[in-house]
Amino acid sequence: MSKNADADSLIAFLNASPTPFHAVETAADRLLAMGAIRLDEKDAWTLKPGQTFFVTRNGSSIVAIRIPQDLSRPRFRIAAAHTDSPCLKLKPRSPDPSANYRQWGVEVYGGVLYNSWLDRDLGVAGRVTRLDDGEIKSVLVRTEGKPFRIPQLAIHLDRGVNENGLVLNPQRHLQPVLGLTDPVGLGSGGLGLGFPGAGGRTLEGWLEETIGVPFASLAFELHLYDTSPAGYGGFDDEFIYSGRLDNLAMSHASLEAFCREGLQPPATGAIQVAALFDNEEVGSTSAQGANSNLLDAALERTLLALGLGRDEALPALARSHLVSADMAHAIHPNYPEKHEPYHYPLINRGPVIKGNASMRYATNAETATLFRGLCDKAGVPCQDFINRADLACGTTIGPHVAAALGIPTVDVGNPMLSMHSAREMCGSEDHGMMIRTLREFFRG
Ligand SMILES: [Zn+2]
């Protein structure tokens, strides 16, 4: 253990969560450990003041809610983040071998930096489903050891790559190599190219062994992930290096703030909510994304289960606040010209408030003031980010949820570099500062 317990806790969460399915399972375990009750959207809910509970949808989104004792003037304080990250997803069937390589086709999920996936030790993780007595059963899987690889073309075969840049076609150039069709050499077909070799372990075989049914009866959502564990970097451990920091870092900060507040639940105050959504990286439109009715339904059902009607639900929403927490771009030392010269965040200098005139971020002056006040209360510094006016701005779940629920929203995040790379980096000190600020938010 290092001296930074908050960063240690984030690193453990990252290592346990190679996919959104694993992240939600890890979050559910954390909530159960602090005494929360698991509810199911398919059942009727009975709730009492003072309870903490959570629901999941699709196994990849989760909403946790804590009810205060006093509900005379209900309102919500919601911290929201996303569980998914750009990655390469396996297609349903393997392609024919190229020469004697055993490979598997991939689709691109979200805004992947293709080059960052080359020459890394990759694993496969996700969920596999099968029918069990007519019921659909899901199992989380993860390859351990035996890493796979997407090999980059040697410079001798791509002489202009350093001058012209690396151009990768996702259909042809990102297929991982899983092994050889004849791993022992000459056993199953000699040295000829293009033969249909019969030897070697296969992904199909591994899935059949793990799940216990024939490959033809399985379906799956499997991702490639970088098997190098998350860890500290820099002379003074001032950085964290990991895949999926965008946005497991803010998912973890929202969840930790929520769980730690549960140790001394307030009698009065807001209904506290931590909402972690899948599918932000592909636009949030899915049954479990931020564009779905997941949060809306969870909030409404909470009030109904407490005996409050729609005439109380709508004012409750109007009295509420949302913090949309998603990672932010720190200034890049080698590309300072890419940043707005007066609004660039620095690593380990505290949470960032993100604004955009076109409302790609949901922040307005009032919600920015609210968040700045929370940072003051938590005793942490606070930074501002806007994009250069001549560059297109990214977005978050903030505008989607703000529009759907009509809740005033602030978009915030911690500064990071290499966003959407298979291996990103952020500050180890910023993480605890965000947790402290979100705890102040829940208390408001
Ligand atoms: Zn993000």
* CATH fold-level label of the largest domain: Aminopeptidase
Largest sheet, in brief, is:
9 strands, mixed
Question: Which runs of at least 5 residues are low in confidence (pLDDT < 50)?
Answer: 186-198
DSSP strand count: 21
Category by helix and strand content: alpha/beta
In CATH terms, the superfamily of the largest domain is: Zn peptidases
Give the N-terminus to C-terminus distance in angstroms: 32 Å
Helicity, in percent? Answer: 25-40%
The percentage of residues in β strands lies in: 15-25%
CATH class of the largest domain: Alpha Beta
Give the count of structural domains. Answer: 2
Compute the number of helices. 11
CATH architectural category of the largest domain: 3-Layer(aba) Sandwich
Mean pLDDT: 93
Strand ordering within the main sheet: 1-2-3-14-4-15-19-17-18
* Distinct ligand kinds: zinc ion
What descriptors fit this protein?
single chain; 444 residues; alpha/beta; Aminopeptidase; Aminopeptidase i, Domain 2; 2 domains; nine-stranded mixed β-sheet; 11 helices; 27% helix; globular; binds zinc ion
Describe this protein's structure:
With 444 residues, the protein is an alpha/beta fold. It folds into two domains: 5-85 and 243-443, 3-Layer(aba) Sandwich (Aminopeptidase), CATH 3.40.630.10; 87-226, Aminopeptidase i, Domain 2. The chain contains eleven helices and 21 strands. Strands 1-2-3-14-4-15-19-17-18 form a nine-stranded mixed β-sheet, sandwiched between helices. A five-stranded mixed β-sheet has the order 12-13-21-20-16. A three-stranded antiparallel β-sheet has the order 9-8-11, with helices on both faces. α1 packs across α11 (428-443), α2 runs parallel beside α6 (245-261) and α9 packs across α11 (428-443). The longest helix has 17 residues, at 245-261. The two termini are 32 Å apart. It binds zinc ion.
